[in-house]
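B., you asked whether I could sanity-check this one before it goes into the benchmark set. Here's the sequence:
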Amino acid sequence: MDDVVDAHHHLWVRARTPQPWIDPASMSRIDADFTPADLPARTYGVEATVVVQSADSWAESRELLRIAGSDDGAAAGVTGVVAWADLTAPDLADRLAALRDGPGGAHLAGIRTQVQAETDPGHLDRLDVRRGLGTVAAAGLAFDLVLRADQLPAAARLARDLPQVRFVLDHLGKPDLRGTATDAASLAAWRCDLTALAAAPNVTAKISGLVTEARWQAWTAEDLRPAVDHALDAFGPDRLMFGSDWPVCLLATGYGDWLATARTLLAGLGPAERAAIFAGTARRTYALEDIDDQG
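And here's what the prediction gave me:
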């Protein structure tokens, strides 16, 4: 069985970190609290995980680091944290240093902001945002890009302009995989835009979050294959990593089913290529071995 690192999941207790994006009607399955004790990664042989921010909150960033440094986090396999930070904060370097110096700070592996929620088409071109990304890179951290597909061209421009930043594209840039005629056109545009982003060598990408871009109750592995195959062509296995997007994936499938589906979609690769996607790329990109050594 392949060594597995889950490079993308979430944890939240809504009384401490509210999740206003969850629609109780259509997302009732995840309208709940999810703690390290609920994370099923170890049940499926996953050796290590990276927990990713879901709220724009310094408090959540501190809480996720505390969890990663706790016995409960260790038992669940939580190794790295992709925290939130305000890229435009004038004291960003000090804020990042404070996260590192706080409880669990050795587990800080990256930063993410909710770029997908930005309505300004020039957001990634803003000088203050780019200055903040430079500060993230100077701190030795990766930056996760959670984007809408229409934001991929701006991300490609950003990655070319900031070669010192290690960018990680979440969910392959959210291709539309529902299979309608309109979606076919958008998928063609996504292929072109993903190829342009992958041309920047400082970008890796996560094979994650795809089931919720497909038909939640009627998707098949073959619905996802065009996206995965194109990502393999664009990035290659050494720049791709597996992620569960748990618990969000529960809207469409269970943890074990998604892991099995990913293995099916990648079954044609050689052992070294699978090892890169299921563990090696995440360990390298997020410097997880260094975190283990500090721990």
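One thing to flag: The CA atoms of residues 229 and 265 lie 8 Å apart. Otherwise nothing jumped out at me.
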